[in-house]
Amino acid sequence: MQKIKYEEIYFILTNSSYNNMISQWIVKSQRIIFGSKPFNILSKDYYNPTRDQNFTAFVIDAPRWANVVGLTENNEILLIRQYRFGTDHVELEIPGGVLEPDEEPLIGIQRELEEETGFVSDDWKLIGRVDANPAIQNNICYTFLAKNIRPFGQINFDPTEEIEYELVSIQKVRELIGEGKITNTFIIAAFYWFERELNQIERNNN
Predict the structure, then answer these.
(1) Beta 140-147 vs 65-71: how paired, if at all?
(2) How many angstroms separate the Cα of 88 from the Cα of each of 83, 105, 187?
(3) Mind giving me the DSSP string for 24-62?
(4) Distance (Å, whole) CA 57 – CA 23
(5) How many CA atoms are closer than 13 Å to the CA of 192, on its beta-carbon side?
(6) DSSP label at 24?
(7) Is it the case that residue 137 has pLDDT exceeding 70?
(8) What is the DSSP code string of 90-115?
């Protein structure tokens, strides 16, 4: 097998002709070693035939997620505040949540938007998706854009939820991210997809 020198790494990573040098690991077996409501932890035994190497990886087996950039007819964005047990702080986010096992992402996020805020929309578009953390997680997050949102739905909080919402300008969201007041990875990714959508609309109008 060809040895890779340190100074060649950048070239290899940016040259697609070298992609076949990355060998595929084969899953031999897996088992749940910890189970909980939000996620399981899997112990997965791998074998790499190219390297003749065995390895046990621990993977967070989590459900799919979805979130939504909600836009009013006045081009204001719907943000929410809620306490997060991961950071032990009240966080500024956008509506979103866990999808049921067989639930279509659009159906799930429409439900989450209404349950968390009471807002609804008839104008939906999937604008992006990301892997949560490919190093240790196996789930994905879908981001939707909902236009012309209106507070005509029914709020239905989960037992531990306590949510407040506010409407802010698009520029204000940019400032909140820049100031470190919005820090959730998936929220920032959602606004990346949203900015791409805005740029596409602008190009189409020119």
Answers:
(1) parallel
(2) 7, 28, 18
(3) PPEEEEEEEEEE-SS-EEEEEEEEETTTTEEEEEEEEE-
(4) 16
(5) 10
(6) P
(7) yes
(8) EEEE-SEEEPPTT--HHHHHHHHHHH
Tokens of 3: 């040895």
- Burial class (CB within 10 angstroms; exposed 0-12, middle 13-18, buried 19+) of 100: exposed
Q: How many CB atoms lie within 10 A of CB 171?
A: 9
pTM here is 0.88
Model pLDDT for residues 183-203, shown as the tens digit of each residue: 999 999 999 999 999 999 888
192: number of Cβ within 10 Å: 15
Which pLDDT tens digit goes with each residue over 87-98?
999 999 999 999
Query: In this predicted model, what pLDDT tens digit does every residue of 115-125 receive, in sequence order?
Result: 999 999 999 99
Q: H or E stretch including 165?
A: strand 164-169
- Rounded-to-integer distance, Cα 45 and Cα 25, Å: 10
Beta bridge partners of 124: 146
Residue with tokens 């992006």, as numbered in its chain: 128
Tokens 């809620």: give the residue.
82
Q: How many Å apart are CA 129 and CA 140, to the nearest integer?
A: 7
Where do the domains of the chain lie, and which CATH numbers do they carry?
6-61 (2.30.30), 65-205 (3.90.79.10)
Residue 121: other Cβ atoms inside 10 A: 22
